[in-house]
């Protein structure tokens, strides 16, 4: 059996680190965010439609999506998120299907930030693993990593599912707060056999 494990968590929760730890144990990791970023790099498959829909003001000099400009636009105009998703999501879905078909691992981890927001995902997964931490920890980590101000961090956090909703969707939870990498690795190791790892 090939396990299909959905992995999600709020920004700054440590989800990407958990994905790397699962990968080190033999899982294939399919990172929806990384695929979406690739689509919106210079020459990316989404860029012609992005230019046509949003105009040249959202394109950097080298031809990539101006992510900061788009983030600000989406927060001010919620309908713009749906427009962007209508361009990017089908391309991401096609690449995910390609990567699944190419995988030979016993566990495929679907690293999906918006897993809870998208009802179609739950039907395609055997289990959902949520990486969780306190909101104050999220803010601190994102500020240190990205250098964003509080307003931007809060806007991103508000755009994601509430913590309670993520936890309600979980089959398993890793609480990644106040612990180091060794302890996180141990928690992943305890759960890994449930997913064929």
Description:
The protein is α/β, with parallel strands linked by helices. The protein folds into two domains: 1-27 and 107-197, 3-Layer(aba) Sandwich (Rossmann fold), CATH 3.40.50.300; 40-104, no CATH class. It contains ten helices and five strands; from the N terminus they run E-H-E-H-H-H-H-E-H-E-H-H-H-E-H. It has helices spanning 15-24, 32-39, 47-54, 67-76, 78-102, 119-122, 135-146, 150-159, 163-168, 181-191; strands at residues 3-8, 28-31, 107-111, 127-132, 172-175. A five-stranded parallel β-sheet has the order 2-3-1-4-5, with helices on both faces. The longest helix is centred in the middle third of the chain and has 25 residues, at 78-102.
Approximately how much beta-strand content do the residues carry? Answer: 5-15%
Domain count: 2
Q: What Rg is obtained from the alpha carbons, in whole angstroms? A: 17 Å
CATH level-4 homologous superfamily of the largest domain: P-loop containing nucleotide triphosphate hydrolases
Q: Determine the N-to-C terminus distance.
A: 12 Å
Main sheet: strands, sense, barrel: 5 strands, parallel
CATH architecture of the largest domain: 3-Layer(aba) Sandwich
Please provide the count of β strands: 5
> Would you tell me the overall average pLDDT?
92
Enumerate the strands of the largest sheet in spatial order, edge to edge or round the barrel: 2-3-1-4-5
Shape: globular
CATH class designation of the largest domain: Alpha Beta
Which spans have pLDDT < 50 for at least 5 consecutive residues? none
The CATH topology of the largest domain is: Rossmann fold
Sheet/helix structural class: alpha/beta
Helix content: 40-55%
Q: Order of SSEs, N→C?
A: EHEHHHHEHEHHHEH
Number of helical segments? 10
